[in-house]
Design a protein that fits this description.
The complex is a heterotrimer. By secondary structure, chain B is mainly α. Chain B contains twelve helices and no strands. The chains are: A alpha/beta, B mainly alpha, C alpha/beta.
Chain lengths: 387, 298, 333
Amino acid sequence: MTLFDQTTTPAATAPALHEVPKRDPRDRGGARQPLLIVRDLHKHFPIKGGLLNTTVATVKAVDGVSFAVGKGETLGVVGESGCGKSTLARLLMHLIPPDRGELIFDGDPVGQRQGLSLRDLRRNMQMVFQDSSSSLNPRMPIEDSVAYGPRVHGAPRHTARATARDLLDKVGLPAEMFAHRYPHELSGGQKQRVNIARALALEPRMLILDEAVSALDKSVEAQVLNLLRHLRTRLSLTYLFISHDLHVVQYISDRVLVMYLGEVVEIGPVDRIYSAARHPYTQALLASQLSTDPAERLTEAPIAGDPPNPIDPPSGCRFHTRCPFAEAVCTAQAPRLSAAEGPEAHGVACHMHDPGSGHSRHGDPPVTPLNAAPAPMPAKRAQGAAR
Amino acid sequence: MPADATITTAQAGAPAGPARRGYWSSVAERLRHDPVTVFFLCVILLAAVAALLAPVLAPHDPYETSMLKRLKPVGFEEHPLGTDELGRDMLSRLLYGGRVSIMMGVLPVLLAVAIGGTLGVLAGFLGGLVNTAIMRVMDVFYAFPSVLLAVAISGTLGGGIASGLVALTLVFIPSLCRVAETATSQIRSVDFVEAARASGAPTHSIIRAHVIGNVLPPIFIYASSLVSVSILLSAGLSFLGLGVSPPVADWGAMLSSLRQAVYVQPLVCALPGIAIFVMSLSFNLVSDGLRHAMDVKA
Amino acid sequence: MTAPLLDVRGLTVRFHSRRSSATAVDDVSFSLAAGEVLCIIGESGSGKSVTMRALMRLLPERRAEISGRIGLDGNDVLSLGDRALNALRGDTVSMVFQEPMTALDPVFTIGDQIAETVRRHRGASRAEAEARALELLKLVRIPSPERRLRAYPHELSGGLRQRAMIALALSCQPKLLLADEPTTALDATVQIQVLVLLKRLQAEIGMGIVFVTHDLGVAAQIADKVAVMYAGRIVEYGPARDVLLDPRHPYTIGMLSSTVRGQPRDRDIEAIPGSPPDLAALPPGCAFAPRCRFAVDACRAALPPVEEVGPGRSARCARLAAARPAAAAAAPA
């Protein structure tokens, strides 16, 4: 549904890349074949309980997620806690097996007989975790941590070590100073640089960054974001950038995917999402962002309530319990993500944007919704971004 | 040039810390600042060396009896620590007995670390059915008090050093297995193990590179505290006549055979007990010191 | 001019361990009038949370050496006896933490915990205390408060738990509320709800708040005055509007320019190089000098004095004039 298909995508709207990747020897499907296609991914976690250890409830962590990431593109994934964005990252890496769904990496289905093996997938796709401390082995010098991946894939010791030292240099940690240090001798930002180097050690084509800068101090976060941007260009990488911080996602992403309780509620190019968000949840998220100008203070919260528990989520549209525009149809029926073919397409899963839904506001989408307060609205923020 | 810019940014804040310091050397560094642990470590080493060199150090044959010199006090003629109920030299017997007692303290624990630790790491890392199978078997062993279990096994096997060794090893396996399992299942879900899996590493490589190094310290610390228990248990077995067979010296057996003479020569009778006490205290305190020294700050 | 509610002069906190000692808070002075909100802004290790805990003497007495003067509502906090201190805590001052799950007792219901606090400090009867608990839950706008009174902390969502924590803190109508990153663990849509609530309650009750945060956006949302801390010292202090829109200290300027707020995507963010210093091995002079692009030898030689840079605002920097143009560029329009 949200996938852009190489045959139907006109050349003019081929992935709007900031840096068109140079011809990569590893490239198989051509520039217009998305690097990663995810189709209808599901992961439900049973919650066991009771005397007989039976399943008493199910957490629908990821529930029918589909999207595609073009080559050289950065797809931002945003959402609040419990929306399933971290589970999504682990599913893509096959750290946990999906219940259902399909991954297609550069045209090759993953984990099928004809396609890409898990081992090959992991060589091509790597992940950076949020917690920079716990993702490094405290008993290993950082050089060995970085060299571990190549060693596992059969590189001789000295080659792996040379790769590691080269990468440490690349991420801004001069090897002659840092190679032999242990994680506890590094600051949080430095550790996250090591994690990035480690993820790059297998020369992957894609990085999954799961809240990779969220735990860092702001001044260090900016350094790491700059580093990630430079690496993306130099190594023609593709990113899936997961974060709860909309400002950071806006800066780093080409397209943005918004998740709510395991589902995609909106997906589209970053400028469209930030200037003309269509889903009430995306609008609320954007309106909840804080400005650093005391004059732009909000005096009213954009929406009330907490994200509901992903155990037994609400019926119909999962957002209806917090949505100011919810009607009967929203409770009864789950909206479908509107067709979003191609990298420029803007898809939304909301009855207000579905002509056949019977929602009273259909055709009258609230352009400036939730604006009871003299709050800075998404549209206004977007102007700031364009400046 | 952007790449240069990133390099300088990281460098500017780099602490001018030590260039290379391994984990074990930092542990040694911390131990050096802990005189109590170092002292008791020396006590253990001294005792071990003395026991090893017993044939050289012992002034008399430990088996040479003398009906004339029975139960002589400390400092009697050429017997600096007196004699026992058969007139054998106490110092020599204590030295020879230390060989058996210290070996019975350390060896069962080492064997149990090897067996229980391996089972625990496997159970913790593989989880699922393997875990259930291993840990439920361990629970069965847990159901018996350890002293009773040791006596029962040793008794069934017919006594002697070898059966005592087997009995004590079996007694320690379940608790070591549990410690290893707990430590491993904690490590298993930590991000760096996930990252290793994400790099496509096979299970045995992850266990070798990332798990063992991190679960060994807690196992090691726990095991060192078991040594004193093992010394006491083996003394207990010998006391009950299930350990070494006479006339071989062993602190527990010595305590047992001297107990009738406690009103005649209380100090001499207490000597094997003191030896047991000092050894187990030393191992306990060293274990405590190691716990502190091995506690890595993240 | 009436005496301020809170007056801190030369507050210094040194931590001693077996091997070393570190100055976590160094010569910090500020004051807060009744009904004012002061935000202490800083990154990890800046001493912001230690400052806050020192105000209530919540630091381990053996290891932490506190000096200076803390005047709170006519009391000299640092010379109070244990009993007077306990009366002050919870009565005149109360505290809200980042993670309510660790601050609320998991085995008692929300209602019991609030009622217990009210009874202990106010000597109210059981019925009165329960009525007060219900009133407080309504005050913090917890939906269906009667039901939530009987809920245990783990049964509430993160946002409701933080509201319950605020209700508990307000149970004895404190004159001063200390808030340590109370919204950091919350989702964005919930964070703004709690901030709006706090601001409204503060205005209604007229209490003062000292609010610790690392997030400039949160500070802009709630603060009247801000104090920017770096390596244990206040480097810039003044009205929120002035400091956030027209920062003077190079660190504040750098914080603002490195905070991602709609910067152009094809250019680097102006990050502050390096990482925060080790408090046990601070350089002489200005602690920010190693990361500061305006630093000169004088900055590294001696600690610059606090300078007035406007009405009610000050900065501790020897290169204010040099940093001025950069300040104009960094400020949000």
